[in-house]
Specification:
D-amino Acid Aminotransferase, Chain A, domain 1, alpha/beta, 31 helices
Length: 820
């Protein structure tokens, strides 16, 4: 019997993850999954069975035999002698010569016979004729997909390979791809010897995603490193266009802790334009071809919710088996899902856990274009367009690469770029993966970057403002905050965050926190929903065609306009709740003033013109009003969806600007009527532990009007906690217009009247068994005010993310000083 490391052919069910030196990382992982995950039940999801297309590996031993048979070792050594990965022209020339040397070689007769025999045997194993057997031929390097050695697109893949002649030619091309320009450059940079690394090839039954969809899945958030997330990119057709960034795909996020508990916890869906797809060619010349996607399919999600959740469960099973975050490629043939690749994720897993780095724009300017942000950094320099490989020798270190899509052969210049900007692609495209590996910012899927950015223009590329990356005109100033959390001891007083942007939530989750004391719903409505709720509720009565056209563009594909509002709002809320899970996230229902609501699409048609909106129709007074209660019902439906469908029980709600106990009763009645009836019991609230989500929902009230405190006994009978809104409380106690600079000097939250009210609230609320928190920057800005709050026994302090670390340190110092 031939030893495994001497075999030419190894079937996938004969190999496992320990066989990387024999068949490379890609093939070893395919074998590992076939042996361990396609048959055995998962403890996490007993009903799931992962499917992996079957096939065989042409071993690294066979590759070495090919090299020896053609006396290529010495020849390629001579070709690569003195190679300089920074010399693009030289690299191209040497790479081309090395590949041609391999392509000119011949297979040893016994090797060719073994491969053809295995190909015929595969047809028999699959119960199909050899003539009908279509396979994928993928490269698998022996130093590939290791935790410290991975790079996107180093070697080639060939799809829809048919017949023995095409098979042998594709395997030879795969062998040659060990010496692509980017692979040579990468090994030089990583100090890998070119002949220590060998190549194996997998011959695998095609998963016919040309009839369905395909894409990439990561078992963490690729930009922040948040580990309790599945991130999926999906597009129509064969998967190469997603990987290389030719298309901008759909993006889905699934929260895994509640998925494991049985909840369909899909917390975000974004549709991508998906203008092209790769399908089988039928002309007998090419193996595959690109075609345009119909308008209907562009505007449809490439995966159903059920398939997103099924695929996510597979991702969890695979990551659990490997005990590591994974980078996975998948395919859907219109009927069945398949996993076609899986490898360890290599960027975020190397991240230093105790060091946080925050890039902040200190000045904004003209936004030329925007797309999906990759990473959270800022880069700037002169824009340099690259249209094809012939131009890459002109690129200079420190420039901003602007292009339609990046090509794997461009890796040598990508590592010199200050930032990367592409028209097409998503967060799992080649450009995105490489930029993360290199640690440089990239904005992908802009659509029009090569049209609106002038070649040679100075630009600033910001990926530090959420999931939307922006390209600004000019070299704008920015700063970098670095935080070392080594040895941080949190204070007894709970430090929570003020959160608004769901797209930054996963990044902020790494800051030291005890949850979110104020999640602002207004930001989600303004930036994600964008439409006034009554414009959706009364869509059929709208007379303005321009407004209807704006609404139609945003709500395309939704069965009714109200479901758009609920879904968009729920996804924004869900991401905030998921990012800080299992700690409490306290969502403040909408607190727009009438002038702010009017700025939404269609808003002017439904909003009154008030002389003083700050003191007008806002907060609680809207929720039970017949003029607005149906809009408030949509907010309640979104919260119910997040809590009960997605299982994010750590989400509770808060009522802003509730002037009287009578208003409080009306609002709670409305909340109950609109389906949020799962209220926490007083006993459960009393025994509740921080960081342990409970099914019952709390309803807090903002303490921002003196009446909230002067009638604290009555408010305490209605609500589960108080959150001091220090800005409004100061304004209404001192009679200030907080928007007026003319009287800003009169006072702030340190005024004795304001402090007396706060002292009264904390004391009396505690007597009633209720907690009190405060939202605002006062405790961060004024150390003596923070000391006052700690002395009075404040339960939590919620502040903006940029001062959370400072607040933890300062409050701990206060507690130590006063012995709290």
């Amino acid at each position: 019997m031939i030893a495994k490391n001497q075999a030419t052919i190894l079937w996938l069910d004969e190999i496992d993850k320990g066989d990387v030196p024999i068949v490379g990382g890609k093939n070893a992982n395919l074998g590992e999954m076939i042996q361990n995950l396609t048959k055995a039940k998962s403890d996490l999801f007993p009903d799931e069975r992962i499917q992996v297309p079957y096939g065989f590996a042409v071993s690294a031993h066979a590759y070495r035999q090919f090299i020896d048979h053609n006396a290529l070792d010495k020849k390629i050594h001579e070709i690569l002698a003195g190679v300089d990965s920074s010399d693009i022209r030289q690299l191209e020339e040497k790479g081309q010569h090395a590949r041609q040397a391999i392509l000119g070689g011949a297979f040893p007769p016994e090797m060719e016979a073994a491969i053809i025999e295995a190909y015929r045997a595969l047809a028999v194993k699959l119960s199909i004729s050899v003539e009908d057997l279509d396979v994928a031929v993928r490269s698998s390097a022996t130093a590939e997909d290791l935790p410290d050695a991975s790079f996107a697109g180093q070697q080639e893949t060939y799809l829809n390979v048919r017949g023995e002649g095409e098979l042998m030619e594709s395997i030879k091309k795969a062998f040659a791809s060990l010496f692509t320009n980017r692979a040579i450059s990468y090994r030089e940079d990583k100090k890998f010897d070119h002949f220590t690394v060998a190549l194996s090839v997998v011959v695998q039954k095609m998963a016919r995603s040309d009839r369905g969809s395909s894409g990439v899945m990561f078992t963490l958030d690729t930009d922040s490193g948040f580990k309790d997330l599945i991130l999926i990119n999906a597009s129509w057709g064969l998967g190469e266009l997603v990987v290389n960034g030719t298309v901008t795909p759909d993006e889905y996020k699934v929260f895994t802790p509640t998925l494991k508990k049985g909840f369909p916890s899909l917390i975000s869906k974004k549709i991508g334009p998906k203008e092209k797809k790769l399908i089988y060619a039928t002309d007998g010349v090419e193996l595959t071809k690109q075609v345009s996607v119909s308008v209907a399919d562009r505007n449809a999600f490439a995966l159903s919710d059920a398939l997103i959740l099924k695929l996510s469960k597979w991702g969890v099973i695979i990551a659990d088996h490997y005990r590591a975050p994974m980078d996975i490629e998948w395919a859907y043939d219109g009927q069945e899902l398949y996993i076609v690749q899986a490898r360890p994720e290599t960027v975020q897993t190397k991240r230093q856990g105790n060091m946080l780095e925050e890039f902040v724009m200190t000045q904004k300017g003209t936004v030329l274009t925007q797309g999906a942000a990759v990473g959270a950094k800022i880069g700037q320099g002169r824009a340099h367009f690259i249209n094809d490989a012939s131009q890459i020798v002109e690129f200079r270190k420190g420039e901003v690469l602007v292009t339609e899509i990046t090509d794997p052969d461009w890796e040598p210049i990508m590592k010199m770029a200050a930032a990367i900007v592409t028209n097409a692609g998503g967060r799992t495209s080649h450009a995105a993966i490489v930029s993360r590996e290199l640690g440089i910012p990239a904005v992908v899927g802009c659509g029009n970057a090569t049209e609106v950015v002038t070649n040679g223009m100075e630009v600033t590329v910001s990926c530090a403002e959420g999931e939307v990356g922006k390209i600004y005109e000019g070299l704008l100033p920015f700063k970098v905050n670095r935080y070392d959390m080594t040895g941080l001891v949190p204070p007894k007083t709970e430090i929570k965050m003020i959160a608004a942007d769901p797209e930054l939530a996963f990044t902020y989750s790494f800051l030291p926190h005890r949850g979110v004391g104020l999640a602002r719903e207004e930001f989600i409505i303004s930036n994600f929903v964008k439409i006034h709720p009554k414009a959706l509720l009364h869509y059929d009565q709208l007379k303005d065609p321009a407004i209807k056209a704006q609404i139609d563009a945003l709500t395309h594909g939704y069965a009714n306009k109200e479901s758009y509002y609920v879904e968009k709002l729920s996804y924004g809320i869900a991401q905030l709740a998921a990012a800080f899970y299992p700690y409490d996230v306290l969502l403040r229902f909408s607190d727009f003033k009438s002038n702010e609501y009017a700025s939404l699409i269609g808003g002017k048609l439904f909003e009154p013109v008030e002389e003083n909106p700050m003191l007008g129709w806002r907060g609680a007074s809207r929720y039970y009003d017949p003029e607005f209660e149906k809009a408030f019902a949509l907010e309640c439906q979104a919260v119910k969806r997040v809590r009960e469908e997605m299982g994010l029980w750590n989400l509770s709600v808060m009522i802003p600007f509730c002037r009287t106990p009578e208003e409080g009763r009306k609002v709670i009645d409305a909340i109950n009527r609109f389906g949020l009836t799962n209220r926490i019991t007083k006993e459960a609230r009393k025994n509740k532990k921080s960081g342990v989500p409970q099914e019952g929902m709390e309803i807090w009230v903002m303490a921002e009007i003196p009446s909230n405190i002067l009638q604290v006994d009555e408010f305490a009978e209605l609500f589960d906690g108080f959150s001091i809104g220090s800005n409004d409380l100061t304004q209404l106690t001192l009679g200030l217009d907080r928007d007026s600079k003319m009287i800003a000097h009169v006072g702030n939250e340190k005024n004795p009247s304001v402090m007396r009210l706060i002292k009264m609230l904390i004391s009396e609320a505690h007597q009633k068994g209720l907690k009190v928190g405060i939202c605002g920057q006062g405790p961060s800005d004024f150390p003596d005010f923070a000391e006052f709050l700690v002395k009075e026994g404040i339960d939590s302090i919620s502040i903006n993310p940029d001062t959370v670390l400072k607040a933890n340190i300062n409050i701990k110092e206060v507690e130590d000083r006063i012995g709290a």
